[in-house]
């Protein structure tokens, strides 16, 4: 199977007044194409920091990715992470930032984030901007990353205006085209959301087509430019050498620098008759329909505070999936929701994953959610991944003492035991983590070696890796 | 016969929605609407429901922490009196008489005497017998008090209960002895070791502790006056699973030792199953189902309970279960649906559901359900279960044959 994302030796640290918090220490894992990888662990074990490191959203200061590689295809997303800042380790560590390089990398990452890697956050209320309508926020992602497709659709619509008019009057889609517009119409007829919704879509398509033909030259130029841009991105993710990559990234970050987000959002708020804005609005409507929001047309005009938690989480999912990302990171998407709503959201995620085929990293502390949605699981403890296995293997044949403890400490509905087995003690402070294996102070099987030596990750059976000294001897036998 | 510790009849709490410049009342949030509840001595009652269904408000009402809009609350009631009051209440509700008979008026006066909401003397004594542990251990402990002071404060104010029981249905309460500072010290030392903390923790401030430890301190404070009744309002929802197990085990030990009665409020059904003896399910301010824990989890009857139970993710990948996905959200409690409040999301809903409000009826022994079709559902469910049992027996037999 192909890999969608490979994380190698990732190290993220927070430099605070009390010392250095080693939040992630040498984390490596791979995400395969089309799979759902679960990451479990207690609070403060570095699950969310891993997610934020991959999307590079760690607040700096105080946090920094110190070392590591994140490979998406052929490209190392952290290629010059060590040049970004120099850390002088004295009693009070000092960081010297290279702000020029950081800004450049940030411009490049703006191209990746939201298009290739997108994220669903834990608190949907905090993830959305309270002063913009839902429509504006969904359209924003599309306008940033999906211009080529949208322009192509409008162009095609402007050429097929009479056909579209006829379809609108008939109330069904009858003509197929061999381009983006055809694909879009296919999607609409497959979704089959009734006549009312179809008329709305066709109306917007016709209107934007008309506007397109009025100032054709301007939009043709725009299309050409964004197509060039897309070609570059495709080239970057294809087989290129490092020098070529460097060259392309330079151009891309220059392009990204030109985008004026403030101007764009102002444009959105004014609801100008720009065909791209119209098309983005139509696409947002389609996205809200696809995440099963009742009355999507009404919700488009709503502000986030008018919606309930479950609805908001659907909107954030729509935003995350707007550009068919390769990798979707869901950081505790259902923790803030009730069980019945959680069931709805998880079902939605599963269905969308089936349709689009994205690889998902699902971060949660709920082992039940993992069992129901994931193919593979990584268990984290105090900044390390201690065990990785397929879901079946992990639940039926857990190896690491921490995993065993975690599985025994959850109260279960299907199999009630009146005595829960708790793991003694608490999660350690990561400024001064325990020496050797970080779990040894709480481990019932700990022996002398555990206190001194950090266990290496070994493969106990195919696809099942454990970082524990207990299994090192067995491998030899 | 089990002794009733706390009984509430017809408890309601409507929160006014204030609006406009003059702050006039625009409407009400019907947080708890006409709830009858009985809690027996020594048991753990689980109270479940989605957020916003009024479970916390009901918990606070049972402690008299929130002023009720209507209702009667008895502590260790005289059984005869309580039954009569309940009967009278339901008859008034259904018949709506314009005038009360003399006998009924007399009964109401007697009830008022024993009602904790109305009798100030009783209320004072009642407060010494009940305690609460809040959801968020960060905000429920005073950040400027040392742990030893936090635990000692209720003890120094209220003292400890003396030996001997209080007589039910009278104003005469159990006597309490005062505790001086020195005695309190010994007492705290004992209680802190009981909680799994040690002596040097006593001279620290709450912010120096982790979530689990803070919750232990909050529990220590709550049980310091040896309450009869303890309301646990989501005590573990802010904690990690491994710490949650520690706290749940601790609570169980304490209950055994001091014979307390718990009302365990939570939205986590798995926790309820592990802890409680009896479960009450709430939806939009009403009790929809009430049964013994095993009974409820194995034979849920109300469609809402069924959906709620099916939605819990089970940590076992090989178990495939059928999820009943409820469409839409919980309706707003300020404008609840007419008739059965669940009918907007119910898969069995019919015309009658939107017109008539169902009453809480006993279907099996100790199993109360508020649904128009509860009997039909119960019958069909038991059939299905019987079929399932036969099926699984057959499969087991087949497997035995294979292995032979």
Keywords:
heterodimer; A: about 475 residues; alpha/beta; eight-stranded mixed β-sheet; 21 helices; 14 strands; B: about 400 residues; three-stranded antiparallel β-sheet; globular
Describe, in plain words, how this protein is organized in 3D.
The complex is a heterodimer of chains A (477) and B (404). Chain A is built from 21 helices and 14 strands. Chain A has helices at 47-54, 81-84, 99-112, 124-127, 134-145, 147-159, 161-170, 180-191, 195-214, 216-237, 242-258, 261-270, 275-290, 296-300, 309-320, 339-356, 367-373, 391-396, 401-409, 448-452, 472-476, and strands at residues 3-16, 19-32, 36-40, 63-72, 75-76, 85-88, 94-97, 117-120, 327-331, 359-363, 376-381, 384-390, 457-461, 464-467. In chain A, the strands form three sheets. Chain A has an eight-stranded mixed sheet with strand order 8-9-10-3-11-12-14-13, sandwiched between helices. A four-stranded antiparallel sheet of chain A has the order 2-1-4-5, covered by helices on one side. Chain A has a two-stranded antiparallel sheet with strand order 6-7. Chain B is α/β, with parallel strands linked by helices. Chain B is globular, with a radius of gyration of 23 Å. In chain B, the strands form three sheets. An eight-stranded mixed sheet of chain B has the order 5-8-9-3-10-11-13-12, with helices on both faces. Chain B has a three-stranded antiparallel sheet with strand order 2-1-4. Chain B has helices at 55-62, 79-95, 102-114, 120-127, 147-158, 181-194, 211-223, 241-258, 269-275, 293-298, 303-310, 351-355, 374-403; strands spanning 4-19, 24-40, 44-48, 70-75, 130-133, 160-161, 176-177, 229-233, 261-265, 278-283, 286-292, 361-364, 367-369. In chain B, helix 5 crosses helix 6 (181-194), helix 5 runs parallel beside helix 7 and helix 7 (211-223) runs parallel beside helix 8. Chains A and B meet through helix 16, helix 17, helix 18 and helix 19 of A and helix 8, helix 9, helix 10 and helix 11 of B.
